[in-house]
Write a structure and sequence with these properties.
Elements lengths: L4 H15 L12 E6 L10 H19 L3 E3 L3 E2 L4 H10 L3 H19 L9 E2 L3 H16 L3 E11 L4 E3 L4 E2 L3 E2 L7 E10 L5 H8 L7 H11 L1 E11 L5 E6 L10 E4 L4 H9 L3 H13 L2 H5 L7 E9 L6 E7 L10 E4 L5 H9 L8 E2 L20 E2 L10 H15 L2 E7 L4 E2 L1 E2 L9 E4 L3 E4 L27 H4 E3 L6 E4 L3 E2 L1 H4 L3 H4 L12 H7 L2 E6 L7 H14 L11 E6 L3 E3 L2 E2 L10 H8 L1 H11 L6 E2 L2 H20 L1 H5 L13 H24 L2 H17 L5 H18 L4 H10 L16 H4 L3 E8 L2 E9 L4 H9 L2 H6 L5 E7 L3 E6 L2
Parallel strand pairs: 1-2, 1-26, 3-4, 12-14, 26-27, 28-30, 31-34
Antiparallel strand pairs: 5-6, 5-9, 7-8, 9-19, 10-11, 10-13, 10-18, 12-15, 13-14, 16-17, 20-25, 21-22, 21-24, 23-24, 28-29, 31-32, 33-34
Helix pairs in contact: 1-25, 2-19, 3-4, 6-7, 8-9, 18-19, 19-20, 19-23, 20-23, 22-23, 22-24, 23-24, 24-25
The structure holds ligand ANZ and zinc ion.
Length: 829
């Protein structure tokens, strides 16, 4: 019989499923462990990135289960989103049908991988029994004032025909999905007030020590806290005031212009008062048509227009021109700045282009005051204050705090904290998403759909429009409804929610997947939350991983989660990419390896083993056909090791105490077995270095295969070794381990067996005999533990009573220790 994975794997998959081996319940004696992978989008089929993600997750789930934890390990589908609409257009199918077909196919693929999910808990975000609660959560946000509607300049992708959240605008202004340059539009949109949580989202990052520092840093930058001063300039000859936000109030004496964003409402007011009003308005609308990259990326062409108005610098009464500038953005700070060309590079470029004055007010700590006319770049570093009246001579940091205080005392401004984080724009003009559960009534305005009427289900009999527009506004039967408040005619909201909302709470639903009177039960979430180990891609660092943290905090404040449950994911592992021939596997590169094909050809165990062995989980994994074959051959050898020795193994005596084994080689083998358990345990649990764990298991397997002796003593050690090997391999390659475990006559599944514990006696090294010499002459032979360092050996030997006796009355000049060999003492003659 050869290693026939083709029959072994389905056999055990069925056995696990039939016995409910991986079903878990809330509560019990064991400690809990919640192991979670980022759930997949049902795009059609699994790719290698999925396979890697789930191989890592399943390894950890199986390992912790064997370690005695009650392990929640669920899976589901992030099933709303644009690709379903595109497929609908392309193939003339319903988005729902396409999605559900993919879900079923990918489920069968996941089962073929042998992942130990509790399948009863599968959730699909497009299922009305799920999105009913997404809508319910939206209403709770709405009631708390955390969901609101406002007109705002929003990111618009012309190609996807939809609005994008800031987080979905990537690479300096492109759509995260299709790469088109994003433009701005003014639209009424729904927002979630994530900025209310900006400070807490930032503060809690420090406590997330189980996260990669890189991700925490990305979130810190994304939240972008800035401390500064909001100050106002009066506009000469009017009663208007311009508010500006600056982080560098220390540069106030160097302000040579004020600049407004094109969208700043003051632009219209100034235009109305100006003889060149039309020119101002035209320039502003030209800027508004530029994309954010054209306006604000480094090196982008700075463009401006002098309004002809002057502002007054409050500190010295100086008149400074007011400009409109394309690099000032409306959605940061106040949408206006004080321009300090000497100390801000963008202002510097702007000033040089339009011949504005450059006045240095900071000099390098060890240098001269720069010359404003000949400077070639702004001096942005800290330094010493100059040209700044009574503040001259102060170092920058001190000047900032003293001048901020001065502004507050004078009533010219106040300290302010600004965040780069914006409120989360969640409405999408798309069909395949969770409908936002509100209606519009002419009499009552915005009316939330009563909770008992949820879900607001998507109409199924629609045709996705050519060009990608949503069919919802056209679905008259669906749109026209009754106002829940007054009973009069009303229209449904036709925007759907950003799918990132659906994925912001799915990990909570897994704990109570069947709950029908709440999104999840307090009893379940208090037991299972937080997720102990989360595994997924780094690309979600500023999207999903911030949104999920925000939802967790709001749910906790709403009383849906325990008050101390403020963070969803205790440990985060961001897996590397799968690459082939040096680049990321992708259809466009034509270097895709299909998981299905690998599994058919070599089996799931081989695929999993290769993936876990080829690289540490956080590093990129270089796909290698040779490596896959190597992994496959290794499993073949393990299989034969058991098969060839089956009778002897079955009748082998129980494990023996190391002290009672006669043969030194067998004692060494027994030590190797226990050292391997010890190392593999630490590699998985502490280091997350699964590749080195596999390497140790390969070493052990080789040593067991090389054993020639067939004495009862040898067979006892061999059996112990093989069982240990199988137990340690089981989380990596569960099917073949189940099979061999059963062949050896063990009761019960290996998946549910206990993880082996190393015998501490076996972790100690053998004893060795060392000699004790005085002036080079052997005086004693002593037995000590092998492997002691020089210092340790010297200490042990010098404390031996016989040695102490030998040295009585002698004058020791020097001690020389050679590990495992000797200690020589030089004494005065
Ligand atoms: C004067 C100044 C002098 C500035 C100087 C910087 C250096 P962070 O750190 O990111 O918060 N700014 C403010 N609002 C802006 C907007 N809507 N569009 C473009 N730029 C804006 O950046 C704060 C600084 O960015 C502010 O401090 C302001 O320029 C600019 F030597 O004010 B500063
Ligand atoms: Zn009404």
């Amino acid at each position: 019989m050869a290693y026939d994975f083709g029959s072994i794997e389905p056999k055990w998959q069925r056995a696990w499923e039939d016995s409910g081996a991986f079903h878990v319940e809330t509560g019990g004696e064991k400690p809990k462990f919640y192991c979670l992978e980022m759930f997949p989008y049902p795009s059609g089929a699994l790719h290698m990135g999925h396979l890697r993600n789930y191989s890592i997750g399943d390894l950890m789930a199986r390992f912790l289960r064997m370690r005695g934890y009650n392990v929640l390990y669920p899976i589901g589908f992030d099933a709303f989103g644009l690709p379903a609409e595109n497929a609908a257009l392309k193939f003339g199918v319903q988005p729902a049908d396409w999605t559900w077909k993919n879900i079923e196919h990918m489920t069968s693929q996941l089962k073929r991988m042998g992942c130990s999910y509790d399948w009863r808990r599968r959730v699909e975000t497009c299922n009305p029994n799920y999105y009913r609660w997404t809508q319910w959560l939206f209403l709770q946000f709405f009631k708390k004032g955390l969901a609101y509607r406002k007109e705002a300049p929003v990111n618009w992708c012309e190609s996807c025909k939809t609005v994008l959240a800031n987080e979905q605008v990537v690479d300096g202004g492109h759509c995260w999905r299709c790469g088109t340059a994003v433009t701005k539009r003014n639209l009424e949109q729904w927002f979630l007030r994530i900025t209310d949580y900006a400070q807490e989202l930032l503060d809690c990052l420090d406590s997330l020590v189980g996260w990669p520092e890189r991700v925490r840093m990305m979130q810190r930058n994304w939240i972008g806290r800035s401390e500064g001063v909001r100050l106002s300039f009066s506009v000469e000859g009017t009663d208007l005031e311009i508010e500006a936000f600056t982080t560098r109030i220390d540069t106030i004496y160097g302000v040579t212009f004020v600049a407004l964003a094109a969208e700043n409402p003051l632009v219209r007011r100034l235009a109305a008062l100006s003889p060149k009003g039309q020119e101002i308005l035209d320039f502003a609308s030209k800027v508004m048509r530029q994309s954010e990259i054209e306006r604000s990326s480094l090196g982008a062409e700075k463009e401006g227009l002098d309004t002809g108005f002057f502002a007054v610098n409050p500190v010295d009464g100086r008149r400074i021109p007011i400009w409109i500038a394309n690099y000032i953005l409306m959605d940061y700070g106040t949408g206006a700045i004080m321009g300090v060309p000497a100390h801000d590079q963008r202002d510097f470029e702007f000033a040089r282009k339009y011949c504005l004055k450059v006045i240095p007010v900071i000099r390098p700590a060890d240098g001269e005051i720069p010359n404003g006319d000949s400077m070639e770049a702004a001096f942005e570093d800290d330094g010493i204050q100059c040209n700044s009246g009574e503040f001259d001579g102060l170092p920058t940091r001190e000047a900032i705090s003293r001048m901020a205080q001065w502004f507050e005392d004078k009533g010219w401004g106040r300290r302010e904290v600004n965040y780069r984080l914006r409120d989360w724009l969640i409405s999408r003009q798309r069909y395949w998403g969770a409908p936002i559960p509100v209606v519009y009534c002419d009499r009552c305005g915005i009316v939330p759909v009563p909770e008992e009427e949820l879900p607001v289900t998507l109409p199924m009999d629609v045709t996705v429009l050519e060009g990608g527009g949503s069919p919802l506004p056209e679905a008259a039967n669906w749109v026209n409804t009754k106002c829940p408040a007054c009973g009069g005619p009303a229209r449904r909201e036709t925007d759907t929610m950003d799918t990132f909302i659906c994925s912001s709470w799915y990990f909570l639903r897994y704990t109570s997947p069947c709950s029908s009177d709440a999104p999840f039960k307090m009893e379940d979430v208090s037991y299972w939350m937080p997720v102990d180990q989360y595994i997924g891609g780094i690309e979600h660092a500023c999207l999903h991983l911030i949104y999920a943290r925000f939802f967790t905090k709001v749910c906790s404040d709403l009383g849906l989660l325990p008050p101390d449950c403020r963070e969803p994911f205790t440990n985060l592992l961001t897996q590397g990419m799968v690459i082939k021939d040096g680049s990321k596997m992708s259809k466009s590169k034509g270097n895709v390896v299909d998981p299905d094909e690998i599994i058919s050809r070599y089996g799931a165990d081989t695929a999993r083993l290769f993936i876990l062995f080829a690289a540490p989980p956080e590093k990129d994994l270089d796909w290698s056909d040779k490596g896959v074959e190597g992994a496959h051959r290794f499993l073949g050898r393990v299989f034969r090791l058991v098969e060839d020795n089956l009778d002897a193994l079955r009748s082998a005596p129980k494990p023996m105490e190391i002290g009672s084994i006669e043969d030194k080689a067998l004692r060494d083998l027994k030590r190797l077995i226990h050292r391997t358990v010890d190392k593999v345990t630490r590699d998985i649990e502490e280091e997350k270095q699964f590749n080195t764990a596999v390497a140790s298991l390969m070493e052990l397997s080789n040593a067991l295969g090389a054993l020639k002796s067939r004495t009862p003593e040898a067979m006892s050690v061999l059996r112990e070794g093989v069982e240990t090997l199988l137990l340690c391999l089981a989380p990596f390659t569960p099917h073949v381990c189940e099979e061999l475990w059963e062949m050896m006559g063990n009761q019960g599944m290996i998946s549910l067996a206990s993880w082996p514990k190393p015998d501490l006696e076996c972790l100690k090294l053998e004893d060795v005999t060392v000699v004790f010499q005085i002036n080079g002459k052997v005086r004693e032979e002593l037995t000590v533990q092998a492997g002691l360092s020089k210092e340790e050996l010297q200490k042990v030997v010098m404390e031996d009573p016989r040695v102490i006796k030998r040295l009585e009355g002698k004058d020791v000049v020097k001690v020389i220790a050679v590990p495992d060999k000797l200690v020589n003492v030089v004494v005065k003659p």
